[in-house]
Description:
By secondary structure, the protein is α+β, with helices and mostly antiparallel strands. It folds into two domains: 2-32, no CATH class; 42-134, Beta-lactamase Inhibitory Protein, Chain:B, domain 1. It is built from four helices and six strands. The chain is elongated and about 95 Å long. It comes from Marinobacter adhaerens. This is Lipoprotein. Residues 23-47 are annotated as: Disordered.
Amino acid sequence: MKNHLNRSLLISTLILSGCSATETGQGLQTKPIQTEPETTEHVTKETEIQELKSRILDLEEKLSSVGEPATPNEGWKRVKNWRRLEVGMDYDSVEKILGPAHRIDGGIVANWYYKNGGRVNFYEGRIHRWEEPN
């Protein structure tokens, strides 16, 4: 009885100290209890989460610098969009950034005019120069 009581006390002590006890034919053996195992799957998930967080931050940064219009076809309202223009851009690229012009003059040399005073000058279908709105 006394031996059984000592064994129970030892097992309780081991359990409370963070170890598990198992009885074998050779006596009592202890193994540490893992409260939160670091498995390969767990590490892989953590890595994946960090990569996704990084991608989200990159995408948010890109979106904030794009200067997209508040409403479609009104990119001409924001100076930030005018500053995205580059010499040599074609008509379609300009229209995607600024939206359609309110007035167009010309042929080989063409001018696109916008309501806010901005103007884009094309030569043979490519931006030659432009004037941002006032």
